Amino acid sequence: MMRPLALAILTLLTLITAQSDSFPRTNYFFRFIGGTTILDNQRLRGNVSVDSVVSPGAVQPPFSPADHFLRLATNAIVPSANAILSVVPTHPHPPPVPGYYGLSDKEGIKDAYRLIYSYRLDDEGPGFQYKGWELRKAKESGKVLLRYSWDFDGEWRWTAKRERVFDGSMTKEINKRVPYYVRPSARNVKILELWDYRVVDLELEETKGEVNPGAPGGVKESWP
Q: Counting Cβ atoms within 10 Å, is residue 159 exposed (0-12), middle (13-18) or buried (19+)?
């Protein structure tokens, strides 16, 4: 027979879980803030990145309709800590398993993590971080900014690193700016000096349109 204290704890945990699940799941796009006039306010798209790693990224116009805005969902409220960001597929026949946005350390750079999404968490290794996202509201602008839970002292920053990738049609190469979460230090300064990057911030922009695979950007709304 379950003891009264254990029963009370179990009941409390059940209520907390039910309450958290009752929050509506909000859909967001990623959007760069700052960097350059071209990067500023750009939504991030889903071009295939280097070595078949898929990262959100910003590209220069003209835009390919096949490069959908990458979309996420979370039932975390704002502000929130320890949030999980789930992939919202915008193409037909999504994978039968859920996907998540997280920070990858596979490139082996100290204090520098690449933002990617994955449907195969076991393949990403123990360094893949995806359960500790924080949604913070900027005091002046009211924008929802994305952080990770280990940024206690504000030393981490988002950067937009330039790389060459193929566009959504896979027929031509284009420049893409990919988000990395970085804490500059003596352990990575020599590598960062080799990068072509801009310091940015990463906003979560609440979506206003439904998923539409045939529409530009994969969303039923006017072209931004």
A: buried
